[in-house]
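Q: Focus on the chain.
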Amino acid sequence: MSGFVLHPEAYSDLDELWEFIAKDDLGSADRVRDLVFEAIQNLVPFPHQGHRRPDLTNRPLRFTRVHDLLVAYAPDEKPLLVLAVIHGSRSPRVLAAILRNRAEH
């Protein structure tokens, strides 16, 4: 894992996600976590490949999907900064609040 860092709460996002999936299937939990890290690593050389979400933030963040998960990151930070890994079905208001809170810290 090089070329990116996770916001401390993004680590928590991944831990909670892993624990939730692992209740039913440990192998699936590991695979999902690995897919998220692989997707993030693939963003490092081309950080602007993700899409913008002006409905969630006016900051220059980008977003990429990994199955039903939304990965929010700051493409201009060196190393690439991942702010959140959250389920994409959450309310846009909740997603915006999460991002706003993490951007302030």
Observations:
- The longest helix spans residues 26-43.
- The chain has a mean pLDDT of 94.
- The first strand starts at residue 4 and ends at 6.
- The radius of gyration is 13 Å.
